[in-house]
Write a structure and sequence with these properties.
Chain lengths: 356, 339
């Protein structure tokens, strides 16, 4: 095992062009150098995507580490997708994510990376579990069938972190975000999570002069975290958190919002004035699945100021409207999307998953 | 096209037992070889299954139609605790290579091997197949257990996405000829046999760790081998199946020790070192699913009586001491020391 002999810290962000990668880049580029969430003097940040290296391939991963010689890794890259794809490609979601994660951790270890932060998700928790979710409950039962392969692969990251720590003393840890939203999300109506889906649907309803119908009653409650806030928390974790145990990165349990509140905010931000309904014939999903952020708050010695939801949502909507032609909206051939084809010919979306 | 059955880990405790059964049962009988069938027993000398290319080459050489996948990195408590990552990663690599190569080369069926030791540490007895993933495994086999559980996860994923006929067996404690009798690494029966043998040879007391009170289920490797062959022929469910004697047929460590003393012909002092930890009192697993399915397809399963099986195992050990795995060659080519 060799250590990179360099005075320049290099932070490699895999999945660097996804929802969270984009947010990290934004924070690093706008916060003051040397400030709590800013770049450090002399530090280099590298944001890589699957175009540069297919992390399922050990050789490409090895070459990526050889090229950049990272001292730190924020590992966001994953094969993600909506319900339909998760159910249809169980093996691909399991195996591809297992390969990606194994390659990143293995080469991080082999090249003497000082620290790796990987990304789990609250969606990998057991389906049958007592609430609120906390970091001790991740492995207490089977995950929900709807993200079978993804969830098992992600849980294995936490298992591997412990094994690397135990055998080698590696400083590998993980973050567990709850539902993330923000600019540069995946707004593809087939695959997207609830906020980008509502934004895209409402945008189309306004453009096409059609009704905006929200699936379900609007009553279920969820916690949402703005990608820029999450990015700051990841930077905090990079600088100040050295425990192998993962940490949930979320707003508080008492800050859940109903889907209706979210939809109202979307309607407001889009400026939609047409027919706005809730299609109660559609299933709601679980009423609540709150996650506790107590551990996070106790570790952050100061209070963390989360961006107010309405403000964050407005900015996200504005980004979407301004960037519609370039955004991942799923309706243009040639864009990076996970298509309905055998895995060998897939063009991968390597992005951060926000859970449902 | 005649069957080619590839047995990985082919020279281990279970591999040797399967070979014994295949070589001795009548051709065409329920547990026997089929006419025209080829059985290949592969070892790590032939292919390091952690390596994708070597695994592919092995499959290319034999072109199996069926696989009984027994190969694994295994070890005792000390090794498992010291090399958590190796036990996790090496086993994941082996299992992933075998399953994926089987999928790519259109193998008809793969039976992998889990173990009752991968069940959650805190679970209400009896162990049944549906409880495998209901909590973390015992820390003492952390890496091994997580890797094995992933085989069951992968079996389901391959089934759902590609329709593969991949399944698994979950044996409880196995004993028999060709076991690993290395005192550092071995499981309870081979450990006690080896210790008693040395005690007799050296004229020293035979000391058993613990009180001798805990109860365990033990299955004779030759009986287990028949179950694997049954599963190969007659079981096509993705859900894994426990291979064990009955829930209430667990026996105390003390009775095991006494049977060994008798089989070895040891006449010295037998001591129970109660300063050593006992481990869990009982962890019975249910074999109801197994017995009912075997009976549904033919004659009920007949287990070899424990004393008879143990006697044969001891006799094998004594006669084969010089060639047995007694710790003279530490860790096979897939050594845990090479992290």
């Amino acid at each position: 095992m060799s250590s990179p002999l360099q005075s320049t810290p290099v932070v490699l962000v895999t999945g660097g062009t996804g929802l969270v990668g984009y947010a990290l880049r934004h924070v690093i580029e706008t916060e003051l150098v040397g400030s709590r969430y800013g770049r450090r003097e002399g530090e280099q940040w590298v944001f890589v995507s699957s175009k540069e290296a297919d992390l399922r391939d050990p050789e490409q991963t090895r070459r990526l580490f050889e090229k950049y010689k990272p001292t730190h890794v924020i590992h966001l890259a994953a094969l993600v997708g909506g319900l339909y794809k998760n159910m249809k490609y169980k093996l691909s979601f399991l195996r591809d994510n297992t390969l990606i994660n194994d390659n990143v951790l293995h080469f991080a270890h082999a090249t003497g990376v000082s620290k790796v932060i990987s990304c789990l998700s609250t969606c990998v928790f057991p389906d049958k579990v007592s609430y609120p979710l906390d970091e001790t409950k991740i492995h207490l039962g089977l995950p929900h069938e709807s993200n079978f392969g993804y969830a098992h692969a992600k849980r294995m990251v936490d298992v591997a972190n412990h094994a690397y720590k135990d055998q080698f003393g590696s400083n590998f840890t993980a973050a567990i975000p709850t539902n993330i939203f923000g600019p540069n999300d995946n707004f593809d109506l087939e695959d997207s999570h609830v906020i980008p889906a509502l934004i895209h649907k409402c945008f189309l309803a306004k453009r096409n002069n059609t009704p905006f119908a929200v699936s379900g009653s609007g009553k279920p409650l969820r916690q949402f975290i703005y990608s820029y806030d999450l990015a700051k928390l990841l930077i905090w974790q990079l600088r100040e958190y050295d425990d192998v145990e993962p940490v949930i990165l979320s707003v508080g349990e008492d800050e859940e919002l109903s889907i209706k509140q979210v939809a109202d905010a979307v309607v407001n931000a889009i400026g939609f004035e047409g027919e706005y309904t809730f299609d109660t014939s559609r299933a709601d999903g679980q009423f609540r699945k709150p996650a506790s952020n107590k551990k996070l708050l106790s570790q952050l010695h100061d209070d963390f100021a989360f961006t107010p939801f309405d403000s964050a949502l407005h900015d996200t909507v504005r980004w979407f409207v301004d960037n519609y032609d370039h955004a991942r909206t799923g309706n243009v051939k040639g864009k990076e999307q996970l298509r309905d084809a055998p895995i060998a010919t897939h063009t991968k979306v390597v992005a951060m998953n926000g859970s449902h | 096209m005649p069957n080619v059955i590839l047995v990985t880990g082919g020279h281990g405790l279970v591999g040797k037992a399967i070979k014994h059964v295949i070589d001795t049962e009548p051709v065409g009988s329920r547990y026997g070889r089929k006419e025209g069938e080829t059985w290949v027993f592969a070892t790590s000398k032939e292919a390091d299954l952690r390596d994708e290319a070597q695994t592919k080459a092995l499959f290319e050489k034999y072109k199996p139609t069926h696989v009984i996948h027994l190969a694994a990195l295994v070890g005792g408590l000390f090794m498992n605790m010291k090399y958590k990552l190796s036990f996790l990663r090496d086993n994941i690599l082996i299992n992933s290579n075998v399953l994926h190569t089987s999928y790519e080369t259109h193998v008809d069926k793969v039976i992998s091997c889990l173990s009752t030791c991968v069940f959650p540490a805190n679970i209400d007895p009896p162990l049944v197949e549906s409880k495998i993933h209901l909590g973390p495994p015992h820390e003492s086999n952390f890496g091994y257990a997580h890797a094995k559980r992933l085989v069951d996860i992968a079996n389901h994923a391959y089934k759902e996405e590609h329709g593969c006929n991949f399944t698994a067996a979950i044996p409880t404690n196995i004993f028999g000829p060709y076991d690993n009798f290395d005192l550092d690494d071995s499981h309870v029966i081979p450990g006690l046999i080896h210790k008693c043998y040395l005690a007799k040879k050296n004229g020293t007391p035979f000391t058993v760790a613990g009180t001798g009170n805990p109860l365990r289920q033990f299955v004779y490797s030759y009986d287990l081998a028949k179950m694997f062959i049954w599963q190969l022929r007659e079981y096509d469910d993705v859900e894994p199946i426990i291979f064990s004697v009955g829930e209430n047929e667990d026996i105390s460590i003390r009775s095991v020790a006494e049977a060994i003393v008798k089989a070895i012909g040891f006449e010295g002092e037998v001591k129970f070192d109660t300063t050593k930890a006992d481990g869990q009192y009982r962890k019975p697993a249910s074999n109801e699913k197994l017995l009912s399915l075997i009976k549904a397809g033919g004659d009920p399963f007949v287990f070899t009586p424990f004393d008879s099986a143990l006697n044969d195992t001891v006799k094998w050990f004594v006669e084969n001491y010089d060639n047995a795995r007694t710790g003279k060659e530490k860790l096979a080519a897939a050594g845990a020391a090479r992290a």
